[in-house]
User: Fold this.
Amino acid sequence: MSRRTLPIFKKLLSGGGSTTRSVTYMPRPGDGTPRPVTLIPGDGVGPLVTGAVEQVMEAMHAPVYFEKYDVHGDMKTVPPELIDSIKKNKVCLKGGLKTPVGGGVSSLNVLLRKELDLYASLVHCFNLQGLPTRHQNVDIVVIRENTEGEYAGLEHEVVPGVVESLKVITKFCSERIAKYAFEYAYLNNRKKVTAVHKANIMKLADGLFLESCREIASKYPSIQYNEMIVDNCSMQLVSKPEQFDVMVTPNLYGNLVSNIAAGIAGGTGVMPGGNVGADHAIFEQGASAGNVGNEKLVEQKKANPVALLLSSAMMLRHLQFPSFADRLEIAVKRVILEGRYRTKDLGGTSTTQEVVDAVIANLE
Assistant:
């Protein structure tokens, strides 16, 4: 959501004013045609939270329908039919896929990003009105390079007991992620982009990343640009997070930074996100889905659906259904503001279904 719309949005949340728009939106003929979306329920709590999205979309009569694929994180490869579906539909909604630790099984999450060239990960970390946190005025967008760096997957055992893992940084990938970050800032009325790095130690690899960011920054003179070493950035995030606006990072740093920012702003259960490339996009919980394998949450059916519901609002905007996105986001934020229905991670006792029912009741 653009910062320019925040005053109007706050007024709607508080119950004042009408939801009638003061700006006319003129769709193109055919824009209301229902769109197919590939759906991956995933592992653990994934089917619970993706099921929540399906219910809300049906209640809204949103112009989307889902093509569901039974895919799990312990599979050795991504099923070709899933790739074909995403390439055809261009858009996918995904629950968490559990990645085995160690062993020879590759992460299906990483394989999907590489196969579809989803080079930009975006996580939006912000305060939700009514949800108490240590810091206020947090509104951070973390944009992370998604296809190289430490996630290149180039590892081998040199001799027994010695393993070499290669970090790959290219000018091409660094420039395109920097361009995406500045373009995002420009389109969303953001004022500053911070490049996160460790170029004081990795002078060539992270040095190339910074050089690329500086070149792109020079083309956006209206947007402030600064740089911060990743360890100092982590400390600054937990002490003065309000100083950050848009952050652009290489692969590994972005994973760490987005989870720190999410924890500060309210937790991973409420932060939306997605992965996008030139042709395709996958929307999922923004920060690390650490609860994906929590069997107790699955048994009690108390997984938090908020993050994926907000990610679905992002997806609806991506599909150019802005009014449906606004309705969904306003309903979710009203439920959080009222505070009656919250899952355990937000200090409540509600089930997933109770939160879903509350969101549906708040739809306009």
Observations:
- The chain has a mean pLDDT of 90.
- The chain is about 40% helix and 20% strand.
